[in-house]
Structure prediction request, 340 residues.
Amino acid sequence: MLTREFVEAMPKVELHVHLEGATQPATLLKLAKKNGISLPANDLEGVKNWFKFENFDQFVQVYIACIECFRSGEDIELLAEEFAREQARQNILYTEATYTAETIFRRCGVPGDEQIEALLAGFAKVPEVKVQLILDIVRDMDVPNGEWTSALCQKWNAKGVCAIGLSGFEGRNPVARHSAAIRDAKKAGLKVSTHAGETQGPDSIREVLADADPDRIGHGVRCVEDAHLVAELRTSQIHLEVNPSSNICLGGYPGLAEHPLPRMMDEGLNVSINSDDPPFFDTTLSDEYWRCAQEYEFSTDTVFSLAQNAARNAFLPDADKKALLQEMVSRFNTLTSGLD
Ligand SMILES: [Zn+2]
Prediction:
């Protein structure tokens, strides 16, 4: 029988997690103190309460306040190392972390290259997990700031950065204003992952498909509101990075019972399970798998096939992907060999 311990020990891959949003509350408090920044909370209990959201706007306000705590390469290296340690603790063998370098440059003054060097130095301290970066454009950024992000992606392409992302408020700013920056990154060999269909409906997904040519879509859950779009996504098999607790915490669905993940799977869509901003939503990747397994009565094989599907849709060269999948199967077989 599937247990929480098994899910934690199972080899996993995560494709949708924001580095800044994965900052542990204790780290946040430490950095705020070190950098003389006052937060609305000054102990762990207070941070937990502060991380209670009613909507996406409120979430973004808290998110920005947290980002202000990163003031130097040293702070960013600590963030990266702690992130990688937590991923490794959960037996995540490979992860792609989204990171908004431009926001930290603009708000905290750390140059882009220094940020990437610090992140890679932090990841390198935890060889148990391989981490690649997706540097994202926030939709409401000005066009030159999106181009700044694209240039940074291109400079670090295949040297720790695997993709350009698009995040932020859906529906307030047209995706098309960043089309050129995204296209330039794609031409230079980077992959593209765009958030859509999280807070807005099917039109938002159609918009990124038309204006950003994504290789994967972050969330995409609201596709289920349009049968034609579901059929299109089934045909294209574009990967949808689903984040159940995030959708529930930000008010998209009352609970897992109403969440469209099982329906997306029944429809034959290409999906994975991810944690998005885990401490903000009081979750981990293991929790996401475990909560879904309980709610939807997933078997051990279903849970592992979701993890394998994340690996299949990773932005890795084919040979690396094959090796990752082999490693996952080998570890899974060792884990299950003692079970009936
Ligand atoms: Zn996200």
User: Anything to note?
Assistant: The domain at 4-24+54-337 is CATH 3.20.20.140 (TIM Barrel).
